[in-house]
């Protein structure tokens, strides 16, 4: 029994080390460096990006024009699976005044089909762009998922949450935005 526990701990350490090494190697876009006002701290201008959705539409953060929940997720992530129904229900009632952009970390998916199946199974009703090479994930320094940034209509970061959120916590985060 002790050997099993030691093996599990060792595999966990190796897995975490590999994840950290790979995620640190992701290139960061110039958006963080080109504007001294841009950053990831609360009150900083959110790094801008443009990504494509499954439907082929382009989403540019700076063009949304209303408060945004910027969520990073993957289809294999159990906490992401737990969070999605809350996001769907929240968005159903508040899509007129807020936006949810659920960035799929495609570079960590086993296939596009897995992401599409997840999208259909959970009936996602908000934009789901995919980050094919991890550039946007790197810009936002996402180390664990789900991670959500709340950005006001002017493009400034209001809050950051790591872990799954409920309808109530999503609503509360948006309510705190001016």
Overview of the molecule:
- The longest helix has 23 residues.
- Strand 1 and strand 2 form a beta hairpin.
- This protein has 178 residues and is an alpha+beta fold.
- About 8% of the residues have low confidence.
- It is globular.
- Helix 3 packs across helix 6.
- The chain has 6 helices and 7 strands.
Largest sheet: 4 strands, mixed
Strand content: 15-25%
> What structural category do the secondary elements indicate?
alpha+beta
Mean pLDDT: 86
The CATH class assignment is Alpha Beta
Distance between the termini: 54 Å
Low-confidence stretches: 21-34
CATH topology, which one? Glutaredoxin
For the secondary structure, the number of strands is: 7
Rg computed from alpha carbons, rounded to a whole number of angstroms: 17 Å
Count of individual domains:
1
**Residues in helices, as a percent range:** 25-40%
**H/E element sequence:** HHEEEHEHEHEEH
Gross morphology is globular
Full CATH superfamily name: Glutaredoxin
The CATH architecture can be named as 3-Layer(aba) Sandwich
